[in-house]
Write a structure and sequence with these properties.
24% strand; 12 strands; four-stranded antiparallel beta sheet
Length: 303
């Protein structure tokens, strides 16, 4: 699913048509009434290393469900620097996945206030595909199937779209095959996987591996993993986590959304944030996850 909102082909294709139906740029207006302000917790905890660049800065972000106008994000503040791994945890309905979708420009949500700066640019002014071409990647909870489009063709078109964006020549099928083979090994996927249609008939684990294969092929400066551990057994989670860790560099960053501590044992976060009622209410280290595992979210209200 991650690539469905990312890349435009030079001529209409099943990918392009599907993407146009699924995602459009997030529209936004400024609020007409006063909203509560919450200080950026991560800004206060940010690294003192002045050489680190700020990748993402979210200030007082508010958003509603476009169809109903129901407020779903209520003043989110978050700062992510290069090389950092952040995790967001929270109860169902707290706004975790909505936050991820708003960042990539999902049409179901409308931004009503605040700002989002990605690599020094106003993210809210970018169209959905421009956000991904700029280096933002979202791995969705439930990737959809695209009948009639092979993984090989899909990934090659997506990768060549990125190369065009960077002013680089496109790869032909043979060149791309040479490029993708090491990526398959990284994610522990057989080469036959490339001949199958995108996510068609895939198990839950295969879909998640396919998302990470897309990430390995494209690269990203900020990767958002929306419950990547959902539906994975321990072995599959270990393989996926190993691939994600291998893709980490000193200049890219990861934002994970999860319910479970076990993911944090494989991908070590620098910061853990608790989201509650559409905003980040607490930020800390792995000790927060330990408290949650033992005492649940009620402990967050008193700790």
């Amino acid at each position: 699913m991650a690539l469905l909102n990312q890349f435009r082909c030079t001529s209409p294709s099943p990918i392009t048509l599907f993407k146009q139906q699924q995602l459009t740029p997030t529209s936004f207006t400024f609020p007409r009434h006063h909203r509560r302000k919450y200080p950026s917790l991560t800004a206060a905890l940010a690294s003192e290393d002045s050489n680190k660049k700020l990748v993402l800065e979210v200030k007082d972000l508010t958003a509603v469900i476009a169809e109903t106008g129901k407020e779903i994000l209520n003043g989110v503040n978050l700062s992510i620097y290069e090389g950092e791994v952040h995790a967001i945890m929270g109860k169902n309905g707290s706004g975790k996945s909505t936050f991820a979708k708003v960042l990539v420009g999902h049409r179901d949500y409308e931004v009503t206030g605040g700002s989002v700066v990605f690599k020094g640019e106003n993210l809210l002014e970018m169209e959905a595909e421009d956000r991904s071409l700029a280096g933002l990647f979202l791995s969705f909870q439930s990737p959809v199937e695209i009948p009639g489009v092979s993984n090989s063709d899909f990934l090659q078109m997506a990768y060549n779209a990125r190369r065009r964006k960077l002013g680089q020549p496109e790869l032909d099928p043979l060149q791309f095959y040479g490029y993708i083979m090491p990526k398959l090994e990284m994610v522990n996927i057989n080469a036959d996987f490339l001949n199958r249609n995108v996510n068609e008939g895939f198990s839950g684990g295969e879909k998640k591996r396919n998302e990470i294969l897309q990430l390995a092929v494209l690269g990203a400066e900020l990767t958002i993993l929306d419950e990547i551990d959902s539906g994975l057994d321990v072995d599959a989670l270990r393989d996926v986590s190993k691939a994600i860790n291998a893709l980490m560099t000193p200049t890219n960053s990861v934002l994970m959304i999860t319910h479970y501590r076990r993911l944090l044992e494989f991908i070590k976060p620098d910061y853990i944030h608790i989201m509650d009622d559409g905003r980040i209410s607490k930020t800390g280290d792995i000790s927060i996850a330990n408290i949650l595992e033992k005492e649940g979210y009620k402990a967050m209200a008193t700790s």
